[in-house]
Amino acid sequence: MNKLQGKDLINVGIFTALYFVVLMAIAMLGFIPIFLPLLIVLVPIVGGIVMMLYYSKIHCFGMLSLTGLITGILMLLTGMGYWSIATGLVFGVLADLVLKSGGYKSARKGVFSHGVFSMWLIGNYMPLVLTRNSYYQQLVTKNGQDYADAAMHYISAGSLPVLLIAGFICGCIGGVIGQKVFKKHFQRAGIA
After folding, report:
1. pLDDT tens-digit profile of 3-50?
2. What is the distance between the alpha carbons of residues 10 and 45, in angstroms, rounded to a whole number?
3. According to a count of CB atoms within 10 Å of the terminal CB, is the N or C end of the chain lower?
């Protein structure tokens, strides 16, 4: 079995940073409340391009787990709460297991793995449901009454399963798009 080496940790750092930049660029849309539920659709689709290039560098277990954990910690540092740490780690480990089951070479398992990995985004929505009243007060203080009311309107307990499924489906779509871009552009350019 291959073990994590220094170059693997460098790849984890580089691709986690790239993924986080894409995530934050798309998250800016969240300042418009109607886009809040759409973030779990847009991030996996656009992020699939970065992640499929990253997947071409993965050859051992733990890299996606670390990416999920680090991304969750970064979300905590940007004010999204601690739930993303747990969901980042859980879905990172599950995505690692899926990728490992394909011997790190299966394109189909790579797409499925990205779908599973993308489900970590549900952690960003959990405070809106699990700590609804206190989170509402934080939103009022930070963004105003109108924004807080609209955000609470779009995200409810019943929407979490739908968002989780949407994260998986859009992650698979993003994986397919990422593989097509990867094959067409990155391999020709000699990046991968």
Report:
1. 889 999 999 999 999 999 999 999 998 888 888 889 999 999 999 999
2. 24
3. N
